[in-house]
Write a structure and sequence with these properties.
The chain has about 260 residues and is α/β, with parallel strands linked by helices. It is built from 9 helices and 11 strands. β4 (about 60-65) and β5 (about 65-70) form a beta hairpin. The strands form 2 sheets. The chain has a 7-stranded mixed sheet, with helices on both faces. The protein is about 35% helix and about 25% strand. It has a domain at about 1-75 and about 180-260: Rossmann fold. Bound molecules: adenosine-5'-triphosphate. The site of adenosine-5'-triphosphate has 12 residues, from α1. Belongs to the ABC transporter superfamily. Keywords: ATP-binding, Nucleotide-binding, Transport. It holds the Pfam family ABC_tran. InterPro entries: AAA+_ATPase, ABC_transporter-like_ATP-bd, ABC_transporter-like_CS, ABC_transporter_ATP-bind, P-loop_NTPase. This is ABC transporter ATP-binding protein.
């Protein structure tokens, strides 16, 4: 098995006396799709803030490709919960934003993003304003802006949380196809159990705050996963839900469980 690209060891974080993360250890290997599943307010987004440089941990370490993560080299492309498209920029100019921030000229950036518009289902919408797109299209535009930066790893923070159920299911299928095609190393935050099972190679289940890793689950369902409602997927979902709902303080003190389903 390949060495981890990203490795968090014993990460702890408090805010003004509020303990949020408590000894979080997890890893993601090259090309893996890993999810962090946990209750609302557990501290999932705080993990991403530690990775993207906004925050420093109180304890523990973060390594990327075996070396400490340095402030000047952030290997992550990050997509936040809300699409954060700028309403005053056309879709094409929203998708070039990350590249322009990195110093690429707008014309070179446009050339780069244009090749991806058909794959992201956005061909013909380059000159539209964000308000003229559906929710799913806006999320695809935000994801295009994220992946075109060609960073080593994708961090997705509940990217489909604001979408209706039907659009969300379509986006999950589309993301699976894109992930298989491009082999993106991906860490996804979600509190949607079904989404985690459908997309992930492995899932870390967190307790509520202060978050600890309660269970690590390897999802061995074959890919491509077309049938969201298969008996096996439903059994994994039920098991995960049970784990989440029974995440008591007693379990919190047990060592992390590891399971392959
Ligand atoms: N900069 C901050 N200062 C103080 N408290 C913070 C800060 N950032 C987060 N918190 C607190 O840390 C806790 C965890 O927040 P976080 O956003 O990481 O949770 P989450 O699991 O991502 O939640 P959700 O699933 O609802 O998005 C919350 O109680 C929040 O109020």
């Amino acid at each position: 098995m390949s060495a981890p690209r990203l490795e968090l060891r014993g990460i702890a974080k408090r805010f003004d006396g509020l303990a949020v993360l408590d000894e979080i250890s997890l890893h993601v290997r090259k090309g893996e799709f890993v999810s962090i599943l946990g209750p609302s307010g557990a501290g999932k987004s705080t993990i991403f803030k530690l990775l993207t440089g906004g925050l420093a941990p109180d304890a523990g370490s973060v390594a990327f490709d075996g070396a400490p993560l340095l402030a000047e080299r952030r290997p992550f492309a990050f997509m936040p919960q809300h699409d954060a498209l700028m309403p005053w920029r056309r879709i094409i100019d929203n998708t070039t934003l990350g590249l322009e921030v990195q110093g690429m000229s707008r014309s070179a950036a446009r050339e780069r993003v244009m090749t991806l518009f058909p794959e992201f289902g956005l061909a013909g919408f380059e000159q539209h304003w964000p308000a003229q797109l559906s929710g799913g299209m806006r999320q695809r535009a935000a994801l295009l802006r994220t992946v075109v930066q060609e960073r080593d790893m994708l961090l997705l923070d509940e990217p489909f949380g604001a979408l209706d159920a039907l659009t969300r299911a379509g986006m999950q299928r589309w993301l699976q196809t894109m992930w298989e095609r491009h082999s993106w190393t991906t860490l996804l935050i979600t509190h949607d159990v079904r989404e985690a099972v459908f997309l992930s190679d492995r899932i870390y289940v967190l307790t509520d705050r202060p978050a600890r890793v309660l269970t690590e689950i390897s999802v061995s369902l074959p890919r491509p996963r077309l049938d969201l409602a298969s008996a096996q997927a439903s059994a994994i979902e039920a098991d995960l839900l049970h784990t989440l709902l029974n995440s008591t303080s007693e379990q919190r003190n047990r060592p992390c469980l590891t399971a392959v389903i």
